[in-house]
Structure formats: structure tokens, C-alpha cells
Amino acid sequence: MKRTKRMKTLSSILLSIFLFLLAGCSGTLPPILLPPTGVLASDNAYTDAVQITWDTVSGASHYQVYRADTLLGAKMAISGWQNGTSYYDTSVTNGEVYYYWVKAATSSSGDNATAFSSPDTGFCTGIVPTLPPILFPPTGVLASDTLVNKVQITWDTVSGASYYQVYRANNFFATKTAISGWQTDTSYLDTSVTPWTTYYYWVKAATSSSGDNATGFSSPDTGYAISIIISPKEKIAVRGKSETK
Hints:
Helix content: 10-25%
CATH class of the largest domain: Mainly Beta
Number of helices: 2
Low-confidence stretches: none
């Protein structure tokens, strides 16, 4: 019994000594920090720099950014211990891909620094990337049904677009065939029609005469051409009147 009591006492003393040495003279345990998360390095967002961003770490006040040429390469600190959660690496070569990591700490001296974060790659090419414009399909598409031997299709202009192309089908579900080139006008005369035949028409918009950044199809409208020759229905009506007489 006495031996067991002495062992417990010795264990308590050793634990107290360990905690004292761990805490230092201040008597407080060092904070347990986790490595930063959400590390993102920009891909060609800037012409002469890579921007690295990350999430804040609970209990941390300072961060340091590291870089390597490969995933397994030597990690070199490229920033001091800073308060912010973003950093611009301007010591980059256009076209080179770099790996980036971040550590967190509790002071500008790097006290209680964490392990490295998960990496992310970033690069710049010296060319500002341009995103294609977002175009919406044309609206206000109207096909005529009063013209002789032709159908006129009109539509509204599309913001950001400069060219349009007209499509036709014999019914709503049939294959849409382009019947015009890419044109700047917002109207088109379809003369390759059969009078009294109903056609479906759609229009697309684009940013160039080659159809760059083309939209989807507009909503359709139906149209047909009339003829100066009497229609079959009118012929039947005329024939019926003559027979009655």
C-alpha cells in the first residue's frame, strides 16, 4: 500500500515538472495551432505576380509564405511573419509554375509555428486573361406571314453581340439549318421558301463573323410566304361557287 502511494506521489511530481518545463516560467501552456487551410495561389490572374491567400487560423496572429519549384523541392520562406492573410509573390518568372505553402504562428518571431499547410500551385504568363463575354440569345424574333414568295425574320439586338445567324426548320423538332451567314443586320429575307408552307425560325448571336462566343438558339417563331397565284383552298372555294351557279 505504501509503495503504491509513493509511486503515485512520484508520478505527480514528474508530471508537475513536465508541465512546468512545457509551460515555461509564465505557467501557461503554449497554444495548439493548426496549419492554415484554404491556401489558394492565383493562375494567370496578374501579369507579374502570383497572389497567395488563405483562411485565418484560430489563435494565430502571424503567417509566413513558403515556395518551391516542385512539390518535393526545398521550401523557401518568401515573406516575413505578417498579419494579413494574403501575399503577392512578385519574384516570379512568367510561365513558371510554383508550389506555395503557409505556416501560422503567435508572434512576428514565429513563436509556436505550425506545420506547413497543404500546397497549391500558381503561375503568371505576363498576359492578362480575358474572359469571353456572356451573351444571351436574341429576343423578339418575328417571322412574317404576309409577304409574297418570301419570309422576313427580324429580332432585337443583343448587348455585346455584333453578328447574328438565322436558322430554319420545317417543324419545331426538326434539325435547325443555318440559312444565313453571320451578319450584322437584325433582319433577314428568306426567299428559299414554298408559298403557304409554314417554317420555324431561330436566331443566334455572336461576337464575330466567325461565330465566336455564339449563344444558344432564340425562342422560335413561325412564318410563311403567300403567293399571287390563287391558293389551293381558294381554288376549291372558287370551283364550288362556279358549280353552284
